Every structure is written in C-alpha cells, then in structure tokens.
C-alpha cells in the first residue's frame, strides 16, 4: 500500500509532537508533510520482534536497541521524522528522544508498498543525516539483508543471506532464516 499525505500544510516539529500518539496507524513526517500508512503486516512484525531480540541479546551495554522509535532526522522549518523498524543508539542517561546524531544503526524492513521508500528515499535521508550504518531486510523471495556503511556521504555495502556475521557497530551473528 502506498503512503498518502493527510495534512494539507507543511507541519513544524512542534505541530508534529502535538499530534500525540496513534497506534492504529504509522505516521512519519517527510519534509514537513504528514505521511500515514497502515501498520505493518504480521510477518513484518514477527521479523522485527525477533531481530530486535537478537540484537538486544548481542549488543554491548553501551548500546540501546529500540523497535519503531521516533527519530528526528532534520529539525528545520520542514522537518523529517522517521519511525525505523529498529534503531541502535549509544546509550546514555539523558537519552529521552532520538535524533540522527544519537543513532549508529537504523534498520528498515521492506514491506509491500514500501520498497521505493526504503530502498531510495530513506536511504538518502539516513545518509544525509549522517547515520553510520543502515541495514535493509527484504523478505521478497527469501530473507536477505543489505548491510550498508556510510562512506563519503553515501551508503555502500552488499546483500547477504543465511547466517550473517557483522562487526559494526558491534559484533553479532544473525541467522536470517530463523528470524522469519
């Protein structure tokens, strides 16, 4: 399903925050435009939960792993706020809300209707925001993950299947087939 804007005028960050929480739908702010989409399907949610659990179990204590948090990418007059599937940030006592500066890894899961947004738009937004690592999980034919690292302002990396061992931002082993 495609995402559709539902607010006729660009919103400020203050207006966005004043909306409150609505768990019946997923909403993000893209250059000041409110974007609303349906909640992800069960397969997406199951993968998200299992992957987050694996990362929590393997992450060193200086990191915090969060599922679907709000991350402010830009706080300009036309702000962008995303809700990635999973975020890894450096933990600290005063961490209350996430900005791109806090995030070391963002993970998105491709769902029907989000392919272009995840593979193109968000890839550019996360790179522009300076987030060091971006992982894309795709379940189209079989579970696979693209492990991307920011280099000279753009992401570079490769697709992987099966059991994947990563070394950044921390060492972890992920069995993609067991996550679905």
From TrEMBL:
<dbReference type="Pfam" id="PF05685">
    <property type="entry name" value="Uma2"/>
</dbReference>
<protein>
    <recommendedName>
        <fullName>Putative restriction endonuclease domain-containing protein</fullName>
    </recommendedName>
</protein>
<dbReference type="InterPro" id="IPR008538">
    <property type="entry name" value="Uma2"/>
</dbReference>
<dbReference type="InterPro" id="IPR011335">
    <property type="entry name" value="Restrct_endonuc-II-like"/>
</dbReference>
<dbReference type="InterPro" id="IPR012296">
    <property type="entry name" value="Nuclease_put_TT1808"/>
</dbReference>
<feature type="domain" description="Putative restriction endonuclease">
    <location>
        <begin position="15"/>
        <end position="156"/>
    </location>
</feature>
């Amino acid at each position: 399903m495609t995402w559709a804007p539902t607010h006729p005028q660009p919103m400020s960050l203050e207006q966005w925050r004043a909306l409150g929480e609505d768990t019946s739908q997923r909403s993000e702010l893209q250059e000041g435009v409110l974007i609303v989409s349906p909640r992800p399907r069960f397969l997406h949610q199951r993968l998200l939960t299992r992957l987050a659990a694996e990362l929590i179990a393997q992450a060193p204590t200086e990191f915090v792993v969060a599922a679907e948090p709000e991350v402010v990418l830009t706080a300009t007059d036309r702000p962008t706020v995303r809700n990635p599937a999973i975020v890894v940030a450096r933990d600290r006592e005063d961490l209350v809300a996430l900005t791109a500066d806090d995030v070391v890894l963002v993970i998105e899961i491709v769902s029907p209707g989000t392919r272009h947004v995840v593979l193109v738009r968000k890839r550019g937004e996360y790179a522009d925001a300076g987030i060091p690592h971006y992982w894309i999980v795709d379940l189209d034919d079989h579970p696979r993950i693209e492990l991307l690292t920011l280099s000279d302002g753009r992401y570079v990396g490769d697709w992987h299947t099966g059991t994947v061992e990563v070394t950044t931002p921390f060492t972890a082993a992920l069995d993609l087939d067991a996550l679905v």
